[in-house]
Amino acid sequence: MANLRFEVVAEAFHKRPVEVETPRERPSEYFAKYVFNRAKMYKYLPVEVYEKLTDVIDNGARLDRSIADAVAAGMKQWAQENGVTHYTHWFQPLTEGTAEKHDAFVEHDGKGGMIEEFSGKLLVQQEPDASSFPNGGIRNTFEARGYSAWDPTSPVFIIDDTLCIPTIFISYTGESLDYKAPLLRSLHAVSVAATGVCRYFYPDVRKVTANLGWEQEYFLVDDSLFFARPDLMLTGRTLMGHDSAKNQQMDDHYFGTIPERVQAYMKDLEIQALELGIPCKTRHNEVAPNQFELAPIFEECNLAVDHNMLLMSLMKKIAHKHGFRVLLHEKPFDGINGSGKHNNWSLSTDTGVLLHGTGKTPEDNLRFVVFIVETLMGVWRHNGLLKASIMSATNAHRLGANEAPPAIISSFLGKQVSDLLEHIEKADKEDLFSVKGKKGMKLDIPEIPELLIDNTDRNRTSPFAFTGNRFEFRAVGSEANCASAMIVLNTAVAEALTDFKKRVDALIKGGEDKLSAILDVLRDDIRTTRPIHFDGNGYSDEWKEEARKRGLDCETSCPIIFDNYLKPASIKMFEDMNVMNRNELEARNEVKWDTYTKKIQIEARVMGDLTMNHVIPVATHYQSQLAKNVQNMYDIFTPSEASNLTARNKKIIREIAERTQIIETGVEELVNARRVANKIDDARTKAVAYHDTVAPKMDDIRYQIDKLELIVSDELWTLPKYRELLFIR
Ligand code: ADP
Ligand code: MG
């Protein structure tokens, strides 16, 4: 019996790094080479068009359709100079990836020939025949179609021969069918709300921007090994596989020397990402073997989300060239760390960062505390919803395990900020004002030391940690579209700030001094948000108990966590902030439940196939070899001698028989559980059934398979083992 495994392992072992040419220019020179950025707009557009367009981008002015033709013409000229022949509306449907449908620039010229055409109409709006994207029943396939509409705030870019135009994707009736439309609405909401609050302190502030700096973790695996693992190919993770004797226990991979083949891959990836305007900055090995991270410099949130989507597809594409596969799944391997995508989030004005605590004046410091506390308010009110925003069938493997943030949302602030909040809450109000004069009162809030920024006082176990000038939302999954988490966070903070302002304004209207009014409301809110603030160990069992007492959402079942989207407080928040309506939320949940079910369904099928086609045949084959040996021993030796000498083999024969029997029964039960669940019509009930009855069976089966892997002859085992998958040379 030929064993493909040895061939692919040898092939992987002999691969050499792919030669990557170093560009002659410096990164600052080729950065955004393929992006229609400001400099190119200026060069390719008439001045008045340039001005109108930048007004749309910077100030949210309405897009004047009359400039669309001129913009399209400029874009086309630039694109053609770069050898582009096609264009596409690039959008983010409710799947994990992005979608695009390419059209050539060509049109009939009316004289029997062709001309290259790209009009404003084609730039601004398209009607992709996108009936098979998930829409949760909003859009019946025979009824209204979906539209993609240009998002001028994210610049167009070129990939190969195609001009890619970032777009939102909405239904005929205006409901969003993607991540970008609600994201833009949430960004608008938080900008308006934060600007309002900001003006208490800086009356001249024109605009507040939300920023996002993501850190993308990923695994690489050699592609020949990948293709020998049907589970990796079809589900993105290994459904079986015993621990490698050595994995991450020595901590020798973290920040270690990057293997040569990987180094070449990273170099290639970074060059191409920089050319697409993604400001890559950091790369390093992660904790687990074969796990790496890439982080750019933070950007405005909408652009950062687009860049992350773009990067993920670039990663996959470039990996092929280097003989790798990228695994973006949150938990490709059991027993070692999974991958996340920390979302560093902050708010800034045209003049500075709002979560920055080094203000020189007491007012600055008060502003800092207000934004910290109102962020906490959003997180506290909607902690269950925030958890729902990062939850998926794949990320569920990571949350709650002792490596990633726990499945309870809380916020770490660190000693300095905690002390500051306590001081403000507990102090006599008079003590917070040093001078009382006619002009109002002078605040006396302790200054926050510089040291705070990038301090080492970091709590890795917190899902939402304050890290000096930003919050780091750590529970986001590596495979996720960051928009999902950002929509909820922005909207929740927008709601909190709006509500804060309403209460402060009411006090001011009643005759209270502005600073005093702010302090009153703030002190209330510090008290209210106490339950979400937790600086201790988020992995501990005591915390689970404590969190329950504090009323935080402790649910761990993925399909039930999705219910948070439909809670009255969530619907009210989304509707009040004008981000999504009930109809959209309901539709999205249908998609979430359906996606969950399908993922587990596919895994269960693959598990069944692998068990029946690989594991059991291999195990029984080995068992026959052993049985043959036992028989031979009886031919050679006396029965009593043979009995002694074959004891070990008999034990293994028995163990294989017992384990395969358990596995076979397990697979039967798995199939039955699926059959029962498949009869359920309601998407939620079905997902719950898959979670409660199908998924756990797979764990039981896996346990037995991994035990078999340990006793069956290595020579016969067909699936590449963890120790082979996990160590790129
Ligand atoms: P670490 O792994 O220590 O958390 P990294 O340097 O890997 O830190 O990543 C930090 C990320 O946070 C980067 O993307 C960085 O640009 C981003 N970041 C830094 N300051 C801010 C800020 N004020 N707002 C949002 N993101 C920020
Ligand atoms: Mg980080």
Give the secondary structure arrangement, pairings included.
Layout: H1 4-14, H2 27-30, H3 38-44, H4 47-59, H5 68-81, E1 86-91, E2 99-104, E3 106-108, E4 114-116, H6 120-124, E5 125-126, E6 146-150, E7 157-159, E8 162-171, H7 180-198, E9 208-222, H8 223-227, H9 230-235, H10 260-275, E10 280-285, E11 291-296, E12 299-300, H11 301-321, E13 324-327, E14 341-349, H12 362-381, H13 383-390, E15 411-412, H14 415-426, E16 433-437, E17 440-443, E18 464-466, E19 471-473, H15 482-509, H16 514-528, H17 541-549, H18 558-561, H19 568-576, H20 582-636, H21 639-645, H22 647-678, H23 683-711, H24 722-725
Parallel strand pairs: 1-8, 15-18
Antiparallel strand pairs: 1-2, 3-4, 5-6, 6-8, 7-8, 9-11, 9-12, 9-13, 9-14, 10-11, 14-19, 16-17, 18-19
Helix pairs in contact: 7-15, 10-11, 12-15, 12-16, 13-15, 14-16, 15-16, 20-21, 20-22, 20-23, 22-23
